Amino acid sequence: MTQEQRTDWDPYTGGCPSREVLDRIGDKWTVLVLAELAESGTKRYTALRRKLDGVSEKMLTQTLRALERDGLVRRTVHPEIPPRVEYEITELGSTLREILTVLKGWSIDHTAEILAARVAYDQRGTAAADGGRS
């Protein structure tokens, strides 16, 4: 299902499908789901939920369905009782592996700097609200 490469996609243009793709890839839970599947391989729903601390069942289900629809994740139902459902990253999803690894590493490497910047910003905001009396 290879499509001809288009050069007129522009995520800065409202209504462009490339913006939807960028929104999907940049979503908080999408990044974490894809990164986990890329690093660890095939996972069952419950294993994913345990790994992604804070995700609700509803949000994880919505994210997995959207990723499956976009061709980034494959859902396999094994005909057992009870049914066993597994998720794995697809070939298309694997093209994001390096990007996700770099993004995850960047977030780890720069968290301290980000936290310090937030404190400095919040202190400036407090000083401005006090009229500089602090």
Form type: extended
Unreliable stretches covering 5 or more consecutive residues: none
Elements, N to C (H/E): HHEHHEEHH
Cα-to-Cα separation, first versus last residue: 63 Å
Helix content: 55-70%
Compute the average pLDDT: 91
The profile of the biggest β sheet is: 3 strands, antiparallel
Proportion of residues in extended strands = 5-15%
Strand order of the largest sheet: 1-3-2
Q: How many β-strand stretches?
A: 3
| Count of helical stretches | 6
The gyration radius over C-alpha positions equals 20 Å
* Structural class by helix and strand composition: mainly alpha
For this entry, give a set of tags.
134 residues; mainly alpha; 60% helix
Description:
With 134 residues, the chain is mainly α. It has six helices and three strands; from the N terminus they run ααβααββαα. Strands 1-3-2 form a three-stranded antiparallel beta sheet. Helix 2 runs antiparallel to helix 6. The model has no long low-confidence stretch (mean pLDDT 91).
Report a brief summary of the structure.
With 134 residues, the chain is mostly helical. The chain has helices at residues 17-26, 28-40, 45-51, 57-69, 91-94, 97-129; strands at residues 43-44, 73-78, 84-89. Strand 2 (73-78) and strand 3 (84-89) form a beta hairpin.
